[in-house]
């Protein structure tokens, strides 16, 4: 009798349901642990160091900001939406008990916003005494073509030109520091899949139909070309440039794409992404931290680091010096780097400069001493 009751209990719908749930839950965690990659934890104490993270209100950017804060760093969250940033910043402070986390508005598609961001960090009550690292994380993908106020398609403006301008405006400050600096660009291995630089249509004006995924892919290739060229030009400086590929990650990047607007297609895409090894942000952030703070990468200029924190080769397009130079010149022009740098110098009470494709010409003697203007001349 007791055995029969036990058998009935084990075969009841509730028991079968709970057993199935337990097996599924356990199977998910086994799968998740295999997709997370090899274990890694950054043990460095980052007290006294300062890092700028773009796009820090969600996804890998938020995870990066929180991990840095856990290790006692001062973190500048460079974000487009200040209200959202304040909310995320509050959560990070509560989780880490580190109050040295700050919101600063910086919209990478708005070049005036970038200049204002750099100006505030360079002089006044928000001035930073040092910068130890910059994480170029912010990125966007959109389903239809939209342009910023300068007439530049927003994907290329945000994913490449904004980072180009931000780096250029901060460069004098970084080069004048005695401490080493690491600039980390987040990128993806999709740039290796039938992708080449479309210099004749960088602004996505001539395509019959706008393909947001393809435009995103080419914008990341442009970012990779810039990263590679920047690492070459800064080889003998205090700055190291690295690229980190976090792998397929759960994020809101594709939220504006057509496939995400319908319930059924959204869930089908989730199932496909799950099967292809999509990782949670707390796992995907590992190669970013490794590139940014780990002692093993302290001298690793020009490295492209994959999701397992292994060095991977640059593709043939990125190795093409002529294409890198051509993109660099176009980026100087489209971002109006010369105008913004001259305005920044004027706002900071320093000597203005003129920038052309041929280089940099100081308009007057630098008010900060001889070194910085000549370093800039060498760089560009």
From TrEMBL:
It comes from the Eukaryota. Keywords: Oxidoreductase. InterPro entries: NAD(P)-bd_dom_sf, SDR_fam. Gene3D superfamilies: NAD(P)-binding Rossmann-like Domain. The keyword Protein biosynthesis does not apply. Pfam families: adh_short (PF00106). Transmembrane segments: none annotated. One of its GO terms (molecular function) is oxidoreductase activity. This is CBN-DHS-24 protein. The lineage of its organism: Eukaryota, Metazoa, Ecdysozoa, Nematoda, Chromadorea. The gene is Cbn-dhs-24.
